[in-house]
Amino acid sequence: LAKTTQPISMDSYEGQEVNITCSHNNIATNDYITWYQQFPSQGPRFIIQGYKTKVTNEVASLFIPADRKSSTLSLPRVSLSDTAVYYCLVGDVGFSGGYNKLIFGAGTRLAVHP
Amino acid sequence: DSGVTQTPKHLITATGQRVTLRCSPRSGDLSVYWYQQSLDQGLQFLIQYYNGEERAKGNILERFSAQQFPDLHSELNLSSLELGDSALYFCASSVGQGEGNTIYFGEGSWLTVV
What we know:
The complex is a heterodimer of chains A (114) and B (114). Chain A is 0% helix and 47% strand. Chain A contains no helices and 9 strands. Chain A has strands at 9-13, 18-23, 31-38, 45-50, 53-56, 61-64, 70-75, 84-92, 108-113. Chain A has a 5-stranded mixed sheet with strand order 1-9-8-3-4, with no helix packed on it. A 4-stranded antiparallel sheet of chain A has the order 2-7-6-5, with no helix packed on it. With 114 residues, chain B is an all-beta fold. Chain B is 0% helix and 51% strand. In chain B, strand 4 and strand 5 (43-50) form a beta hairpin. The radius of gyration of chain B is 13 Å and the shape is globular. The chains are: A mainly beta (114), B mainly beta (114). The interface between A and B is medium-sized, with 26 and 34 residues.
């Protein structure tokens, strides 16, 4: 299973764009890259998922270079409510179905200031 | 609301006791995952079930056990409880078939061992 490395913490201000980069040098061919957001005492919430190039949804964009050894989560115009821990996961979707041993790293604590 | 339901939301029990945490996955999801998150700690993968069968095991203690029933709900049994078992226990579910599965988390069960 590919190991991921993210910055431990980041600070930003309201209205700014935040980019959180995740390194996953040992990503395998079948691996997808998924990002989750977690607020204190709540379950992680799915943000975005991608395999290659760029994916965009209503809350974020995910940029994945051609070698797929890293990925960048981009949060446009953050607000105070975006203060949370963000996890990057690289999942092995095997034939058995679903993710096996989906391992969360330490995540990135994003603090958004007024 | 992720669609994953966990009960109870809060539980206080004494050391040496046994508790059962229950999880109902999202409708149609075949995979169930259990995670433990201690105060200020990351999410620790415990175990995964797929359509009633154990699929993957993480750092789950021998005092802990789980199962997934024919109706796909799951239970996590924690026995001989210790103070260090106090944590937030999350259940998650996914469809478990095809590529790029997303797992969805419940809101967790707070266990306090006194």
